């Protein structure tokens, strides 16, 4: 509230100064227009907020950066984007996935890895991954050939194979002692023998009677 001891001339000069500051902006002026009637005995209930001045009964003149019947709402210029809320002049509270002074920047929690790009898709921030990566942060490598027998894709097209398996897709079994007589290693340390051979390494020949 404004003290009644302050002369109306000083108040009017102060208000005109505020009006001049507001009208100097590129935005259209808000609140009361220049040339309003100021009543030094006016009362506003509820009172004007954020340094607003009660110029007539229940009529507030708002200071720069605020608006509303009691100057209760802050203004942000430019406006808060992407659903952001103006907390005070020039300060926005941004929803998840957005940042920057006016919530104009898209931000992905934890960032995007391996060359991924953070963009807004239907109002939600997400990572768009290059063709060889997947996952919410582009953290999962893609192996087009697949990783068999318990292998794990650790980089695009590269599998990490468990003991006993080799090859680009972990598809080649390893037998530390080679299979003999045309036998084939079909799983770690296991041979498939060709007749008439048998044994762990196809080293035994069956006698035919």
Compact description:
Disulfide bonds join 44-54, 62-71, 108-118, 129-138, 175-185, 193-202. This protein is mainly β.
Walk me through this protein's architecture.
The chain has one helix spanning 8-23; strands at residues 53-56, 59-61, 66-67, 73-74, 85-88, 91-93, 98-99, 105-106, 117-121, 124-128, 133-134, 140-141, 152-155, 158-160, 165-166, 172-173, 184-187, 190-192, 197-198, 204-205. By secondary structure, it is mainly beta. The strands form 10 sheets. A two-stranded antiparallel sheet has the order 1-2.
Count of extended strands:
20
Global outline: rod-shaped
Low-confidence stretches: 1-34
| β-sheet strand percentage | 25-35%
Write the layout of secondary structure elements.
Layout: H1 8-23, E1 53-56, E2 59-61, E3 66-67, E4 73-74, E5 85-88, E6 91-93, E7 98-99, E8 105-106, E9 117-121, E10 124-128, E11 133-134, E12 140-141, E13 152-155, E14 158-160, E15 165-166, E16 172-173, E17 184-187, E18 190-192, E19 197-198, E20 204-205
Antiparallel strand pairs: 1-2, 3-4, 5-6, 7-8, 9-10, 11-12, 13-14, 15-16, 17-18, 19-20
Protein name: von Willebrand factor D and EGF domain-containing protein
Pfam families: EGF_2 (PF07974)
GO biological process, one term: anterior/posterior pattern specification
């Amino acid at each position: 509230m404004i003290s009644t001891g302050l002369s109306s001339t000083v108040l009017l000069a102060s208000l005109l100064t505020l009006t001049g500051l507001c009208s100097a902006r590129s935005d259209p002026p808000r609140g009361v227009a220049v040339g309003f009637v100021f009543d030094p005995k006016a009362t506003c209930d509820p009172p004007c907020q954020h340094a607003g001045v009660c110029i007539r009964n229940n009529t507030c003149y708002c200071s720069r950066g605020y608006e509303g019947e009691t100057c209760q709402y802050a203004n942000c210029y430019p406006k808060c984007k992407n659903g952001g809320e103006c907390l005070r002049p020039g300060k926005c509270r941004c929803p998840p996935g957005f940042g920057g002074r006016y919530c104009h920047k898209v931000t992905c929690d934890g960032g995007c890895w391996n060359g991924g790009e953070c963009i807004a898709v239907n109002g939600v921030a997400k990572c768009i991954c290059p063709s060889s990566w997947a996952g919410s942060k582009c953290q999962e490598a893609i192996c087009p050939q697949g990783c068999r027998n318990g292998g794990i894709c650790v980089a695009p097209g590269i599998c990490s194979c468990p003991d006993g398996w080799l090859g680009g897709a972990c598809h080649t079994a390893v037998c530390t002692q080679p299979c003999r007589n045309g036998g084939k290693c079909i799983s770690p340390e296991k041979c498939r023998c060709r007749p008439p051979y048998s044994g762990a390494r196809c080293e035994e020949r069956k006698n035919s009677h």
